[in-house]
Write a structure and sequence with these properties.
By secondary structure, the protein is an alpha/beta fold. It has 2 domains: 2-172 and 223-251, Rossmann fold (3-Layer(aba) Sandwich), CATH 3.40.50; 190-222 and 254-291 and 305-322, UDP-galactose 4-epimerase, domain 1, CATH 3.90.25. Helix content is 37%, strand content 18%. It has 10 helices and 14 strands. β5, α5 (140-159) and β6 (162-168) form a beta-alpha-beta unit. The protein binds uridine-5'-diphosphate. Uridine-5'-diphosphate binds at residues 170, 188-190, 193, 205-208, 219, 221, 259, 282, 285.
């Protein structure tokens, strides 16, 4: 199928592009290259550089390329920045998505896959997180994801849009082939920061909080491999054939790891020590967040190839070893 991957040069988008190719689909990329990396794009793929919120740019692409499904990975995702500059986040994550959906409607493209986030569940004390829990985001970033999910529901009912929202837990790891991986600027995620500290590219890792109500006092998170996330998206294509289909899936392994467990795993995989110290809690962090992934497993026949933190860190380590400075540097 012809798939338009919006944000296809980003971390998760670029992994999805590889998985689409492997599954025999034809991905086409739109990216504005604010965060995306040109070197992540496989040779020979059609790439349009521009603004997903510009209908005069996107609608002709949708029509000319005869796009069947749009996958949207092009969100801003720094929770802290969303609090200090909420307008930036509402503009990119909500307003531009509205325009993308309008362009799809104009071009008669009515299948949409949206990258959502487990942060829409807010500070739920009910773990694991399953799909029926109430949405109660508490950061501007999380609220933008929640707002788009709600809008998609209205679009399904009003226009017959078929959509799938995938709520990612902690996307991590890298394609085992070793040519693409995680390269954010600034980097805020635990696994790359721990690896960079082990490699001496950072002085140390600061662990945000040691007194959480968890077995070792550090936060529990559900690290899920980017290729596993990508394959769940592709597994939903068939279900989107019926107009007005609404799908929601929580994507995690269901097996959380603490910050200390991640550090221990990076040390075991790399054979190096991760210099670290304990610091204060990071505002907005919840003690634990992990998925109940059974819905995706049973309905999409989703196969988790990287079910534990070790297998995920191994792929991340391989990427960082071979690309110590990431892409294009
Ligand atoms: N974390 C940490 N030190 C860091 C970065 C992250 O202790 O320098 C912790 C953070 O508090 C959270 C976990 O690692 O409990 C995962 O954080 P990350 O930013 O990777 O993802 P999040 O769960 O915030 O989406």
């Amino acid at each position: 199928m012809k798939i338009l991957v919006v944000g296809g040069a980003g971390y998760i988008g670029s992994h999805c592009v590889r998985q689409l190719l492997a599954a025999g689909h034809q991905p086409i990329i739109i990216d504005n290259f604010v965060y995306g990396h040109r070197d992540s794009i496989p040779e020979g793929l059609t790439v349009y550089e521009g603004d997903m919120g510009d209908i005069a740019f996107t609608q002709p692409i949708l029509e000319k390329e005869q796009v069947e499904i749009v996958m949207h990975f092009a969100a801003f995702a720094y929770v802290g920045e969303s609090t200090s500059d909420p307008l930036k986040y509402y503009d990119n994550n909500v307003a531009k998505t509205v325009h993308l959906l309008q362009a799809m409607r104009n071009a008669n493209v009515n299948r949409f896959i949206f990258s959502s986030s487990c942060t829409i569940f807010g500070e739920s004390s009910k773990m694991p997180l399953h799909e029926d829990l109430p949405l109660q985001a508490f950061s501007p970033y999380g609220q933008t994801k929640q707002d788009v999910e709600v809008l998609l529901g209205y679009c399904a009912k009003a226009y017959g849009l078929s959509y799938a929202c995938f709520r990612y837990f902690n996307a991590s790891g890298a394609d085992p082939e070793g040519t693409i991986g995680e390269d954010h600027d600034p980097e805020t995620h635990l696994i790359p920061l721990a690896i960079q500290a082990a490699r001496g590219q950072r002085d140390k890792l600061v662990i945000f909080g040691m007194d959480y109500p968890t077995p070792d006092g550090t936060c529990l998170r559900d690290y899920v491999h980017v290729n596993d996330l990508s394959r769940a998206h592709i597994a939903a294509f068939d279900k989107l054939k019926t107009p007005g289909t609404e799908l929601h899936y929580n994507l995690g392994t269901g097996k959380p790891a603490s910050v200390l467990e991640v550090i221990n795993t990076v040390e075991a995989v790399s054979g190096l020590s991760v210099p670290h110290e304990f610091g204060p809690r990071r505002p907005g962090d919840v003690p634990a967040a992990y998925a109940y992934p059974e819905k995706a497993i049973s309905e999409l026949n989703w196969q988790i190839e990287f079910p534990d933190i070790k297998s995920i860190v191994e792929t991340a380590w391989k990427w960082h070893e071979s690309h110590p400075n990431g892409f294009e540097k």
